[in-house]
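Readers of this paper often ask what the protein records in our data store actually look like. Nothing more is needed to write down the fold, since each code stands for a local backbone conformation. Below, we set out a record of this kind in full and without editing:
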Amino acid sequence: MKKLWIACVLATSFLITGPLVQASELNNKAALDGIQEIKVIYDVRKANPNLLLAYLKGIESNRKNLALEGVKSTQRIVFIADSVKYITSKPSDDVSIQHGDVLKKIAEQVKRLKSLGVEMEACSAATAAFNVDNDTILPGIQVVRSGFLSVMGWQAKGYQLVPIYN
């Protein structure tokens, strides 16, 4: 009976006072201490368009959170593999039928990221493999010879890799 009473007291006090750490207190000070600027390259290879959209929104959130930490960020995205099927103005019929609504949201998010200064590239080897016409890649995304070469090059220029794989 005593254990039940203690559990009730603890549960009640939690409900009254709320969680011990408020969201406004959350930070990444330990990891970002002394860092004034960060350059990041996202290697995006998502086969699920809903997850692709979620990660594109996450990239925007990263930008905001870095600013809250006082860190200037330069972000780049390289779309490789299946992800190129979802960043085109003329998706295949099956992709369009299955994912039409989310494709519109992806296009809107790409436009938003571009307006925030995020640079984006698409791998032409992937567009060829998935029969995506390079001329239909969404505005703001530059088609490059090889996404892998871009990832290597940006890393050689000091960009930190964030892999976003299936």
Summary: Strands lie at 37-45, 72-79, 119-123, 141-144, 160-165. The chain has one domain: 24-165. The longest strand covers residues 37-45. Residues 4-17 have pLDDT under 50 and may be disordered.
